[in-house]
Write a structure and sequence with these properties.
By secondary structure, the protein is of the alpha/beta class. Helices cover 38% and strands 27% of the residues. α1 packs parallel to α4.
Length: 382
């Protein structure tokens, strides 16, 4: 007889019993990583990998606010995506299971890939262990992989004084590595071989228990090794990582979070790629004036079946088109997600000023502007 953890049984047992068929366990993958690590691009590549094997795949995105660029991006690429806004996976495994039920209404998925909030911790204790302990027959939990963003990782791993984040925010980054079964240095297409070697060497030295891989989620270089890791059995005996929730909460609270939705119209159609890149550049310049470090900034422009995505992974970086649209539109919905090391009201002002500057340059009008701007609530143990 299986033993069900008392803390999770009331929340999820009845839900899972209704929808999970014991004859075919669902493969559950979770890919973590700090804000801007490239999780969404990596998840899309993972999903396509499993689809080529003839498996049905469902994706779950997560954020502390609604209007997610990642959700719209993945859906626009044709993936079956569920979104859990306003909460974190940690401490809310019941909601996660319920979302799997909803996604399975049209057909039971073979694989579920979950993307947690980029600043979240305690995934092992609050998500993976409950799934294993209570429903090990219904779910096959894959090893927990964490993506590493090189631009900030190398500074933190070198213990540089000006790493772009405070020690409290760096604490979150380091604890994410400790929680992982393996880590992946992403964006190697933007690095030299010496830079890749330095980061992997620092990770080996400071986290010798971890397998360290390197890949480019964009080009696919090194991806086959990452896919192989996710197909292995997980370490179900791995203990939870001890956390200082005071430091964890303070680290999250140092970031301003903004999710915005804006209707953009123009008398004449404008190139969507140019517009999005100019929006990101204009916002970046105002954040530079504040000396505010960007964790991530994502913008999607979408209308009908046409869309484009631009992103920024640090204040010093150049904007990138992660999904070019290569089209012109006279009207589009613009969704912005920003996580920046500054006060929420400063972030809102920088985004609004940047938006208006880019819109004016393209002779566009901004309408129906809606923005959620806040600091995350203090984290509490799950």
């Amino acid at each position: 007889m299986s033993v069900v953890a008392p803390a999770v049984e009331p929340a999820i047992k009845s839900v899972v019993e209704r929808v999970i068929e014991p004859r075919r366990p669902i493969r559950f993958l979770m890919l973590g990583g700090f804000l801007g690590a490239g999780k969404t691009t990596a998840i899309a590549r993972l999903a396509r990998h499993f689809q080529t094997q003839g498996k049905s795949v469902a994706l779950i995105t997560n954020d502390k606010a609604s209007d997610l660029v990642d959700t719209l991006n993945l859906r626009a690429q044709g993936f079956h995506v569920g979104e859990l806004p306003g909460i974190c996976f940690c401490g809310n495994v019941g909601e996660l299971i319920e979302m799997i039920r909803v996604l399975g209404v049209a057909g039971r998925p073979d694989v579920v890939i979950a993307e947690p909030v980029g600043s979240c911790l305690d995934m092992v204790a609050t998500v993976l262990q409950p799934l294993r302990a209570a429903y090990g027959r219904e779910f096959e939990v894959a090893p927990f992989g964490v993506l590493v963003k090189p631009t900030h990782a190398v500074k933190i791993l070198r213990n540089e004084d000006n790493a772009g984040f405070s020690p409290k925010a760096a604490y979150i980054f380091r604890k994410q590595l400790e929680e992982a079964d393996f880590v992946v240095v992403n964006r190697i297409d933007q690095l030299t071989p010496l830079q890749v070697a330095e980061i992997t060497s620092l990770l080996h030295e400071q986290y010798p228990q971890l397998a360290v891989l390197a890949m480019s989620a964009t080009t696919g270089a090194g991806f086959e090794h990452v896919a192989t890791m996710f197909e292995q059995s997980d370490r179900n005996d791995k203990p939870a990582v001890p956390l200082d929730y005071t430091v964890y909460g303070a680290g999250e609270a140092e970031l301003g979070w903004l999710n915005g939705s804006i209707l953009v119209t123009a008398e004449r159609a404008v190139p969507i790629d140019d517009l999005l890149l100019d929006v990101v550049r204009a916002i970046r310049e105002r954040l530079r004036q504040l000396q505010a470090e960007v964790s991530h900034l994502k913008v999607i422009g979408i209308q009908g079946g046409k869309f484009a995505v631009a992103n920024l992974i640090s204040t010093a970086a150049e904007p990138e088109l992660s999904q070019p649209g290569a089209c012109e539109l006279a009207a589009l919905q613009l969704i912005i997600n920003a996580r920046v090391g500054c006060a929420p009201e400063e972030l809102r002002q920088a985004v609004e000023l940047g938006l208006r500057a880019a819109a004016d340059a393209h002779r566009c009008s901004l309408e129906e502007i809606e923005m959620q701007c806040f600091r995350p609530g203090v984290a509490t143990p799950g």
